[in-house]
């Protein structure tokens, strides 16, 4: 199995509506197994079902690859500005980042609507949160670029967090002192913000995982209910068929009993007929013997007369 094969299958599956994901995954795994690629089939079955937010991000990457690429390019420019400590560039690029994420989040909502799925404001917000996390976390970025996001993501690491936590541009009335804060205070604020973001991200992650488990459980319940309904129908049909077979068997047994009685009568008739036949043959033999005897006597009288 090559990674490209799995990537191709995953790209298709993660663009499928979450409500149809399990059925599509099962079908894809079965197709891989039927083709003899058991390793690919096993890998497909391990693909996790995406939440609505994950599905929205995957569709966005699929439908608007250039705009998403521009966002990642903006992230590279933000990192460069941070390395250069270019406060002016950071403010401008941070504003561009926020604008781009808002536009892409709105576009994700539109794409979902085109697929017949109405989304909530929370879902749109989490799409933006995931895009922001992709600019700060290489692992998240890899999942987003590949269109294989499973659930909402958020930045939860320490260190340079400007890409996900960069402030909105300050107004022109800000003082020079606010533009050049004390280094220790700035570092403390950054660490506090990072810790807060980590706590929030962990809470969001637990919530998303719980919601995902709930959705999977609900889907499994529906599938089990459907399977039970099918099984009930099959059991009822089997019961009806069994009743019909029992009735037919009783009829055949009755016919067999009648046939056996007819056979017994026929055997009796056969034996009786054989006995009568033997008796009549004995009478015939005696008659033939008397006839022969009388013919011989008649022949003797004819010879004497002549």
Give the number of DSSP strands. Answer: 0
Portion in strands: under 5%
Sequence of secondary-structure elements: HHHHHHHHHHH
Q: How confident is the prediction overall: mean pLDDT?
A: 80
CA-to-CA gap between the ends?
Answer: 122 Å
Secondary structure: helix percent = over 70%
Estimated structural class = mainly alpha
Unreliable stretches? 158-162, 164-186
Please work out how many helical segments DSSP would assign: 11
Oligomer: single chain
Radius of gyration: 46 Å
Question: Judging from the principal axes of the Cα atoms, what is the shape?
Answer: rod-shaped
Could you describe the largest sheet, including whether it forms a barrel?
Answer: none
Topology:
Blueprint: H1 3-13, H2 18-34, H3 38-45, H4 52-63, H5 65-83, H6 87-114, H7 121-136, H8 138-146, H9 162-165, H10 176-179, H11 183-305
């Amino acid at each position: 199995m090559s990674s490209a094969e799995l990537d191709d299958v995953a790209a298709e599956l993660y663009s499928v509506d979450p409500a149809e994901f399990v059925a599509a995954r099962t079908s894809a795994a079965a197709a891989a197994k039927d083709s003899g690629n058991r390793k690919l089939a096993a890998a497909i079955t391990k693909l996790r079902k995406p939440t609505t937010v994950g599905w929205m991000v995957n569709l966005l990457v699929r439908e608007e690859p250039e705009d998403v690429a521009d966002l990642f390019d903006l992230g590279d420019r933000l990192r460069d500005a941070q390395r250069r400590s270019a406060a002016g560039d950071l403010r401008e690029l941070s504003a561009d980042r926020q604008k781009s994420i808002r536009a892409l989040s709105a576009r994700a909502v539109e794409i979902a609507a085109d697929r017949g799925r109405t989304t909530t404001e929370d879902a749109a917000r989490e799409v933006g949160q995931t895009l922001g996390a992709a600019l700060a976390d290489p692992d998240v970025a890899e999942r987003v670029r590949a269109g294989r996001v499973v659930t909402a993501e958020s930045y939860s690491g320490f260190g340079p967090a400007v890409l996900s936590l960069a402030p909105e541009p300050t107004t022109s009335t800000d003082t020079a002192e606010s533009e050049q804060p004390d280094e220790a205070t700035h570092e403390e604020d950054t660490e506090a913000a990072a810790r807060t973001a980590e706590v929030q991200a962990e809470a969001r992650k637990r919530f998303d995982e719980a919601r995902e488990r709930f959705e999977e459980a609900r889907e499994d319940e529906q599938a089990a209910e459907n399977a039970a309904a099918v099984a009930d129908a099959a059991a009822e049909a089997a019961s009806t068929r069994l009743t019909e077979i029992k009735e037919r068997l009783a009829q055949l047994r009755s016919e067999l009993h009648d046939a056996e009685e007819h056979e017994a009568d026929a055997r009796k008739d056969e034996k009786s007929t054989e006995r009568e036949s033997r008796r009549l043959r004995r009478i015939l033999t005696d008659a033939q013997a008397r006839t022969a005897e009388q013919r011989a006597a008649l022949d003797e009288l004819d010879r004497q007369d002549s």
